[in-house]
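Narrative of activities, Objective 1.

The group set out to show that a structural description can be obtained from nothing but a protein's sequence at a throughput compatible with the screening campaign. Below is one input-output pair from the validation batch, recorded exactly as produced.
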Amino acid sequence: MQRNFPQKRLGLLLASLLCTLPVQAAVTFIGEGSIPGTATDQSGLTGLLEDDVTPHNLIGGLGSALAYTGKGQRYIATPDRGPADGATSYIDRIYQLDIKLKQQSANQYLVEPTVTRTTLMRQARKTYFTGSAAAFDAVNSPDSLRFDPEGVRISRCGHSAFVSDEYGPFIYELDLESGKRLRSVNVPNKFLTDFPSATPSVELAQNASGRQSNRGMEGLAITPDGRKLLGIMQSPLLQDGGLDAAAARAGTNVRIAEIDVESGAVREFLYPLDKKGNGVSEILAVNDNELLVLERDGKPGADAKEKKIFKIDISAATDIRGVKQLPQTGVPLGVTPVTKSLFLNLLDPAHGLAGASFPEKIEGLAFGPDLDDGRHLLLVVNDNDFVAAQPTRIFAFAIDSYELPGFQAQQVHAEHSGECRKEKEHADD
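Output recorded for this entry:
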């Protein structure tokens, strides 16, 4: 006669077995590489910038934006506006770099980054984009030469990249071979300031809407098919209660703009910050609807408390294009924000990264090619602010596939296809 095993004893036995099995974390820190803060690039520029400290060809600010090209171990990166908060004539540029991972053990890799090429960003021949805050035009148009690159993503054809700007904010498409701007992607007017200035306090006093000074389109994502861009602001817009009466950061409602690359059609979504005073540094597509968002405080080292990556979903979020003004905090009636859950806390003791040397400005996110064991590779990079004593640090994490079940790598199409050939001909004009 068969007897049923008591349910309680069965549960205890299963729990005991599970406790004896090795458990591997879903997101695992596997290695770190760095580029010295004194490294120089291939720009051919000589001499010092106006701060009398920084060489024109210094590799700095590299971690502001990083993107995988879809080819081998090759990435592109765009440094931000240079040193001294926009007070120099630093020329914007695109870096090509190889980031090689060499496995030492199951969860230990050597991370070896090498900058292999430097291309200066330009409007026309010898007319270069600059990080100088003074290089604006009076109506804040894309004709301005001032540009603060903060997000970069490779286009679907692979010969160009989209770069988001903290100043305008603008989004430009640039040819990777020549550095020439191919076009400006229209950004909704509500994101733009009407009266730009080289001085942040003057700019804030003159504008009642648009981005806060130095808090523009900090992050940029592209969907896996390359057809939509998603730009996220670093902080709430002025009209959305970004600042209080004392000009302190008080708002928590950040806008995401989704822009169709071909048609220009736009949707907007609400991303709620975890805490006022936090800012968004990057956004990265997992698939068409799910994305990773890097949210952080502005504190370095042991003082850092908020360096987190959240997974969001926009599929059920309300399109807030028609909402002219969001409340400073809280979600307005009838609006559904993006769903948001913690994906990776960079300061979690399990990763061993927190402490006195942890960088303030964690700003770049990129998926790389999957590891040999099938896990996804996520690279997290800091902006060293062009400080020679501080390296650019690249943190590598392995992600088990079950942690991102809907993951889709970006598909970069062959340049010999008809559509890509047409775009390439335009880039060569």
